[in-house]
Amino acid sequence: MLKLKFGISLSLAVLLLMPNIAQTRPSIQQFNSNQEAVFEFLADDMEYSESKVLGKGNATIINLDYFVTANEATYDTQNGEITLSGNVNAYKGNALYLKAQKVKIKMQQDYSFLEPFYLQDSMSGLWIDAKSAQYDKNVYQTQDSTISTCSVNNPIWQLKVSKSQYDVNQEWLSVWNPRFCIYEMPVLYFPYLSFSLGYKRKSGLLYPKIGHSNDDGFLFSQPIFIAPQDWWDMTFAPQVRTKRGAGFYNEFRLIDDKDEILWANLGYFGDTNSYQNTYDLENQEHFGFQLKYERKDLLTKTQNYFYEDGIYADIAQVKDIDYFRLTDEDARRLADLQGSLLTSRLNYFLKSEADYVGVYGRYYSDLDKTSNAETLQTLPQVQYHRQIDKLFLDNLYYSFDYQAKNFTRPIGYRAVQQEAQLPIIYTQSLLDDFVNISASPVFYATQINYSNVKQGHIEDGRYITQHYQFKANSDLVKQYENFGHTLNLETLYILPGFDDQKGDFQGFFTLPGHRQELHFNGSQYFYDLNHTLWLSHRIKQPFYLEDKHRVGELENEIQYFYNYEWSFLSSIFYSHQKARISEATHQLRYDGEYLKASFGHFFRDSFAGIDWNRGRFGKANYLMAGFDKEFENIDIFASAGYDYKERYFKTWQVGFETSIRCFSFGVKYVSEIYPMLTTRGAEARDDKYVLFTIKFIPLLSSDVKMGN
Fold first, then answer.
1. Which residues on adjacent β-strands are paired with residue 232?
2. What is the per-residue pLDDT for 136?
3. Which of 96, 148, 191, 210 could form a disulfide with 702 if both were Cys (CB 3.0 to 4.6 A apart)?
4. DSSP state of 307
5. Binning pLDDT at 50, 70 and 90, where does residue 210 land?
């Protein structure tokens, strides 16, 4: 911001420089103790009378990074006051910053009086127009002023205030009795408003969220931003829904000494008795907690034996799925939510040149269920891994891995699994290093101990095996005239040796080395001459040679990048057993400068194997499409998700938004089907609403939601 600060110590000298040649303009300069010019007064003509210097014609005051021009200026050297009059313009950089007809500056007191007054912030575009203003110690004070970011001649919106105060250092504007007007028509009145014009974090009120729906009634949420220190802040947002109830969410952010951010969110919402009874909800209270944090080198130092460690936390515990609809949008976006399955993870590891130690925890919440008491959780899992190292001979290596997993839940059996694996690996390169082969006897043992077995009988399990793994792989790279190509081919064969198995092993336990397996894996990548990827292809095919169904699922993925705008993805899992596709994803995307469009397809059959680690459970049949087109002053968009098996739209929306510098207006019609947890379990609920978005930049942004 412009700082009209001309305060100078008594040691400064005033020098009148007369022109030596016709082209030189008369000027007065002031220097500090280091002989640096901090103030300069120039004009086409200068007259000196007693203690006053009068500059006429293009009078200019230059101070540090700004300058002020006027028709004429008078500098009183005795009382340190300078008066500029006639078309006074202040510039900062190359931008006009302040306009007035008369400016009085008391240099020693850092005080000035301006009339009429015009001030514009170059960052936000906000301007203040007043009949007069006083500037004292970096604070502007005005009476009967107008504030807006629109065109000065005919602003779409404006604040008419009886009094305003702007602190230059704090970049903070306070106004009294503001009347919010659309053009000249008053719309809203506030006794007092205060807001920041800068980008420095400050505590205060954020834009409110205002809406309406037939189900929830009038919605009002007023976020309060609290930033007491540079390294943490929080946003507390109480909300009320007149037909449903009230609650809050509290978002917390902390930055550590490694510039990593810890993010946490805590929320609560309570429904009224009538709302719960109307929709037969399982829960009257909806609350949750989320935390995300990731960091390396938490405790270790490079000179220690363990030179690297790290922590990863992604924790989310919520009462039900409705919590994500009632809290901030970031809560759902940052949650590991696949369908109705919410996953929490907490991992920590220590690493050295030879050893690796990890402690992991994983917790699942199926939000379609009224209770997850029977869901098996992994709390905790402990791992020790000895890194691969030489053993006696060249090309002979070994590694060791030990893991202990605690599978627990309140209702149903629990289990503790311990497993250890010791491979001895011999490797050899063939054909001038074009092919690498390895042979490895693998010693493996696991022990399962069950507890909390109340019905039936489950016997503790024990499994010991010694089997063999034979691997051959090739990594090839070749540069052609117009492109580059890399190819990786790998074959893995598993041959059982001996094994000893006793007791029971429930379905989620896997026993390696008990059958012959053959795995073929391949990947290839094509690059242009600038080393930009334009095609990738990965394929996997396992064979289980001793099973009834010997051929496993075929995995095939292709990504094609036609250019920086067009891309295509195809991922297919094919079941030879069922002779049909078990899961498939296809997506075509266009990301242009003014147009973004996509068309996609996702399919998962009911027989597809459940894999919670990658969110694979339950059938799905969706077509997805959307586009967003930007024109000069308007942006139109639409999207849809269609279940082509059940023949209904899961979600679709269409709308537009138009904006200019100071004003934005948008309309969006949305139809969506979302789950709600009732006393009978999760049930689909259909919601349709119109959303109006109005923004008076940078003062007010609100969403008005109308449902049917």
1. 229, 254
2. 74
3. 210
4. -
5. confident
Structure tokens at 125: 């575009």
Please answer whether residues 676 and 682 qualify as being in contact, where contact means their C-beta atoms are separated by less than 8 angstroms: yes
Residue 630: name the closest of 661, 590, 594 by CA. Answer: 594
DSSP bridge partners of 253: 233, 263
DSSP at 614: G
- Taking only the tens place, the pLDDT of each residue in 388-401 is 999 888 899 999 99
Classify each residue of 421-442 as buried b or exposed e, where b means 16 or more C-beta atoms within 10 Å of its C-beta: bbbebeeeeeeeeeebebebeb
For the record, the structure tokens of 383 come out as 């791992």
CA max distance for the chain:
112
DSSP character string of 156-170:
SEEEEEEEEEEETTT
Whether the pLDDT of residue 520 is over 50: the answer is yes
Q: How far apart are the C-alpha atoms of 384 and 405, rounded to whole Å?
A: 12
CA separation for the pair 451, 409 (Å, rounded) = 11
Cis ω before 191 (30° cut-off from 0): no
Query: Helix H segments across 205-286?
Result: 273-279
Average pLDDT rounded to a whole number, residues 271-297: 92
- Under the banding of pLDDT at 50, 70 and 90, the label for residue 287 is very high
* Sheet strands (E) in 503-553: 517-527, 533-544
Residues near 510 by beta carbon (within 8 Å), at least 6 away in sequence: none
SS3 of 432-470: CCCEEEEEEEEEEEEEEEEECCCCCCCCCEEEEEEEEEE
Residue 555: CA count within 13 A, CB half-sphere: 11
Residue (of 407, 438, 630, 418) closest to 507 by Cα position:
407
Query: Does 11 score more than 60 pLDDT?
Result: no
**Amino acid code (one letter) for 610:** I
Q: Which of 202, 166, 203, 197 is nearest to 3 (CA)?
A: 166
Q: How many CB atoms lie within 10 A of CB 135?
A: 26
Helices (H), 337-399: none
pLDDT(705) > 50: no
Q: Give percent above pLDDT 70 in the chain.
A: 86
Percent of the chain residues past pLDDT 90, beyond the cut: 39
298 — phi, psi (to 5°)? -75, -45
Rounded to whole angstroms, what are the CA distances from 107 to 79, 104, 595?
A: 9, 9, 55
pLDDT of residue 685: 77
Distance CA 562, CA 115 (A): 61
Instruction: Tell me the three state secondary structure of residue 326.
Output: helix
- pLDDT computed for residue 95 by the predictor: 58
**Residue 316, pLDDT above cutoff 90:** yes
Q: Is 216 in contact with 687 (CB distance < 8 Å)?
A: no
pLDDT tens-place string over residues 215-238: 788 888 888 888 888 889 999 999
Q: Which of 45-54, 112-121, 343-352 has the highest mean pLDDT?
A: 343-352
Asked whether the bond before 380 is cis by omega within 30 degrees of 0, the reply is yes
Fill in the amino acid letter for 26.
P
* DSSP symbols for 235-269: EEEEEEETTTEEEEEEEEEEE-TTS-EEEEEEEEE
CB count in 10 Å sphere of residue 34: 6
Contact 97, 123 (CB under 8 A): no
Cβ neighbours of residue 281 under 8 Å, at least 6 residues apart? Answer: 271, 275, 322, 676, 677, 678, 679
- Say if residues 707 and 691 touch (Cβ distance below 8 Å): no
- As a whole number of angstroms, the distance between CA 176 and CA 194 comes to 9
Amino acid, res. 621: N
- CA triple 537-541-546, angle to 5 deg: 175
Q: Which tokens sit at 55?
A: 């500059």
> CA torsion 579→583→588→593, rounded to 10°?
-170
Four-residue CA torsion sign, 575, 579, 581, 582: negative
Tell me what the mean pLDDT of segment 95-116 comes to: 64
The two three-digit tokens of residue 605, written as one number: 């059959």
